[in-house]
Design goal:
The protein is α/β, with parallel strands linked by helices. It folds into two domains: 9-62, Roll (2,3-Dihydroxybiphenyl 1,2-Dioxygenase, domain 1); 75-149, 2,3-Dihydroxybiphenyl 1,2-Dioxygenase, domain 1 (Roll), CATH 3.10.180. The chain has helices at residues 20-31, 57-64, 87-96, and strands at 12-17, 37-38, 42-46, 51-56, 77-80, 100-106, 113-118, 124-129. It has a four-stranded mixed β-sheet with strand order 1-4-3-2. Strand 7 (113-118) and strand 8 (124-129) form a beta hairpin. The mean pLDDT is 88.
Length: 149
């Protein structure tokens, strides 16, 4: 019997969207991301270490055999930036691209600087700078607990 641990990784995160063109416009104009693949149902974005999918909600529901997935959940996706000064301008850009501001940039009690925006389908995105979470040359965020060696 194989007892090898399962790798800690996320391969794909898929978001249900009502209008694929509108969603693509938000991610293109807001973040500057272009899909690696698109058809009339889904768009895939190659990220640093995983794939982000935007799937028309009825198609996602059919694929999962789970109706009514279009409801709010207790989650937030996050996009970290390298410098504190990048947070507010990116929030502004995302709002201009069709997002809704959920929380203006501010300093949380645990440190750093962050704000929240919702994409046109109400998926929450945190835009954050955290001095304890360095971003490497490839754009990967490395978790470092405060005070960790």
């Amino acid at each position: 019997m194989n007892h090898d641990p399962i790798q800690k990784q996320v391969a794909v995160i898929t978001l249900g969207v009502a209008d694929l063109d509108r969603a693509r416009g938000f991610y293109s104009k807001g973040f500057g991301w272009e899909p690696s693949f698109i058809n009339d149902q889904i768009a895939f974005y190659q990220m640093n270490g995983f794939v982000l999918g935007l799937f028309l909600t009825p198609s996602l529901e059919a694929d999962m055999n789970r109706p009514a997935v279009a409801r709010r959940g207790a989650y937030a996706l996050a996009h970290n930036v390298r410098r504190r000064e990048e947070v507010a301008p990116l929030l502004d850009r995302l709002v201009r691209a069709g997002g809704g501001l959920l929380r203006a940039a501010d300093e949380p009690a645990h440190g750093g600087y962050r704000g929240y925006v919702a994409d046109p389908d109400d998926h929450a995105w945190e835009i954050a700078w955290n001095p304890d979470w360095p971003i490497d040359a490839d754009g990967h965020v490395r978790f470092a607990a405060p005070g960790a060696a």
